[in-house]
Specification:
- This protein has helices at residues 3-34, 44-51, 72-82, 94-105, 116-125, 132-148, 151-161, 171-179, 188-197, 211-226; strands spanning 61-62, 163-165, 168-169.
- It is an all-alpha fold and 236 residues long.
- It folds into two domains: 1-34; 40-235, Orthogonal Bundle (Penicillin binding protein transpeptidase fold), CATH 1.10.3810.
- A three-stranded mixed beta sheet has the order 1-3-2.
- The protein is elongated.
- The N and C termini lie far apart (60 Å).
Length: 236
């Protein structure tokens, strides 16, 4: 291949890659923008759970409910458990990330530092597992979500798509299948138990709850009160 032909080929490749990147940006940002108003019919995590060979095939439980149909107790329990700086950060808890780095350097047990916005990005658009590519996409989608979608809507989306049990997605499906009530009727203890289950919904049992889960639920209720209870939600 002559130098001129090589330069022409490389120029075409660059134009093709730039065009491909622009298309991907438009599609991905449009998808995030649509979530300001449209309720997602499914998520990447749901599709993986349903079709991945890693799991036994089951019928997923997923019932969308607007924020007005979800108990404020659950909203506060999830914030208290997962992301106490939710109202103030822009998608990332820098202090928590710095602490994780310090713990890793000290050889301590690793703990999560993902915010509600980061977890929403993973649930909606990504796949389970760890890699630098996935982490980079998580940062991208989290930034887009925080820039485009209001906090109250982010919380509403999260409460509806997060996995509360094996194949059980969202507050309504969890409330019905676990406690036999609708999401709006969840009391403080039920809401705290659901939030306590989020780190490992397939492993942690809450009916009946273990001593650890009961202790965790009491801690979550205490933290929710310290945050200001339902008044905290008006900050969003």
């Amino acid at each position: 291949m002559t130098k001129n032909k090589k330069r022409t080929f490389l120029a075409k490749m660059r134009r093709w890659l730039v065009s491909l990147l622009l298309v991907w940006l438009v599609v991905s940002l449009s998808s995030v923008l649509a979530l300001r108003w449209l309720d997602p019919p499914t998520t990447a995590f749901m599709l993986q759970r349903q079709y991945s060979s890693e799991y036994e095939t089951i019928r997923l439980q997923y019932l969308w409910r607007d924020m007005s149909q979800i108990s404020p107790q659950l909203s506060m329990s999830v914030i208290a458990s997962e992301d106490q700086k939710f109202a103030d950060h822009w998608g990332f808890d820098v202090g928590a990330i710095e602490q994780v780095i310090k713990d890793r350097q000290a050889g301590k047990k690793m703990r999560g530092a993902s915010t509600i916005s980061q977890q929403l990005a993973k649930n909606l658009f990504l796949w389970s597992g760890r890699s630098w590519v996935r982490k980079g996409l998580e940062v991208y989608f989290t930034t887009a979500i925080e820039a485009i979608i209001p906090k109250q809507r982010i919380l509403e989306l999260y409460l509806n798509v997060v996995e509360f049990g094996d194949g059980v997605y969202g507050a309504e499906a969890a409330a019905q299948s676990i406690f036999g009530v609708d999401a709006k009727s969840l009391d403080a203890n039920q809401a705290a138990l659901l939030a306590a289950r989020l780190p490992a919904p397939k492993r942690y049992q809450i009916k009946p709850p273990s001593d650890y889960m009961q202790q965790r639920a009491r801690w979550i209720q205490k933290q929710a009160k310290q945050l200001g209870g339902e008044d905290y939600l008006y900050k969003l």
